[in-house]
Design brief:
With 187 residues, this protein is α/β, with parallel strands linked by helices. 30% of the residues lie in helices and 28% in strands.
């Protein structure tokens, strides 16, 4: 993946009030996550399903930092409270789009979506090799996801923190979702 495309994503994400980090490799992700948790005073973090290996490393780093960790599978009888009680949610994006500064998350159950929408801070992680240049390039992976999962499938585009504006056009962050959003690109 070209450095220019990563830079384009980082710039666009920042223009949407998001904070982007570039990790040189998977081993560099856990320290970035822990730094974010410390910055926001996190006491509890929840994870959506992360790739094998990455989940263990981040969980270990969070526990070592004294942060309570919630991992899937979540007891459905405890949803959404088990996730809403967390300060930070960490999820995996299947791909991202540089043009729109969007992380794209695929979910087959509500817990994954709740991890990226209920906590006040969201951290989305993706591989640079999955970064698409243009929004139109997302059509094929979206189409394939819905063909492979015809029921209960949700694709969510996450472009920085939640935002809304009132009739006077005063922008407010965090009303309908996270007020702070971080993206970690694994180079």
């Amino acid at each position: 993946m070209s450095a220019e495309l990563i830079d384009a994503f980082v710039e666009k994400y920042a223009s949407l009030s998001g904070i982007a980090h570039v990790a040189e490799n998977a081993d560099a992700v856990a320290p970035i996550v822990v730094n974010v948790l410390r910055e926001v005073g996190c006491k509890r973090v929840v994870f959506a399903e992360l790739p094998d290996g990455l989940d263990d490393a981040i969980e270990r780093a969070c526990v070592d930092a004294g942060v309570d960790v919630g991992m899937p599978p979540f007891d459905s009888s405890e949803l959404p409270h088990a996730i809403d009680a967390a300060d930070v949610g960490v999820s995996w994006a299947v791909f991202a789009v540089a043009e729109s500064g969007s992380l794209v998350e695929f979910a087959l159950d509500d817990a994954v979506r709740l991890v990226s929408t209920l906590p006040r801070v969201h951290i989305g992680i993706f591989k640079a090799s999955t970064l698409l240049e243009y929004l139109k390039d997302a059509a094929e992976p979206l189409r394939q996801f819905y063909l492979d999962h015809p029921e209960n499938a949700t694709a969510t585009f996450i472009s920085g923190p939640s935002r809304t504006a009132d009739i006077e056009m005063k922008l407010t962050l965090g009303v309908h979702g996270p007020e702070v959003a971080h993206a970690i690109v694994i180079r």
